[in-house]
Amino acid sequence: MKFLLDMGLAGSTARFLRANGHDAIHLREQGLQRLVDEEIVSKAVGEDRIILTHDLDFGRIVALSGERLPSVLTFRLTDMRAENVNRYLVDVLARFPEELEIGALVSIQDDSVRLRRLPVRRSSRKSFE
Asked: Which of 1, 29, 71, 86 has the lowest tally of Cβ within 10 angstroms?
């Protein structure tokens, strides 16, 4: 798998992914730490990468786009140290490889992992009079 790590995650997580056979880059490694969120999403799409982030905006941007890609893994952990993030990441990659390849939003919290397939469809609301 190919990953693009946002600034909220440690560079050592990119190194961890590479050591485990993945293609991973961190924005800081490319001098792109000031890139705006929409441009990060475009970069991920253009390079066929999954976004790893701590920022809730990426899931919103991708959901509103109506597109299938990129997948976004959002880490909302109490302990965001790289070792802890990496532990959760290994679990998610083992559980959802197909979903991540075809498009998903994944929210990773201390006690739960939520997955929503892309594209996100707006639920139809019924009004009652």
From this structure: 29
Question: CA-CA distance, 4 to 48, in Å (whole number)?
Answer: 9
The CB-based long-range contact list for 83-89 (8 Å cut-off, 24+ gap) reads 85/9, 85/10, 85/13, 86/13, 86/16, 88/113, 89/13, 89/16, 89/17, 89/52
Global confidence as pTM: 0.91
pLDDT digit string, tens, across residues 21-70: 999 999 999 999 898 999 999 999 999 999 999 999 999 999 999 999 99
Cα distances from 39 to residues 29, 54, 56, in angstroms, run 16, 17, 15
Local structure of 16: helix, strand or coil: helix
The dihedral region occupied by 99, where left means phi > 0, alpha psi between -120 and 50, and beta the remainder, is alpha
Q: Nearest Cα to 70, choosing from 122, 124, 1?
A: 1
Residues 6 or more apart whose CB falls under 8 angstroms from that of 63 comprise 105, 116, 118, 119, 120
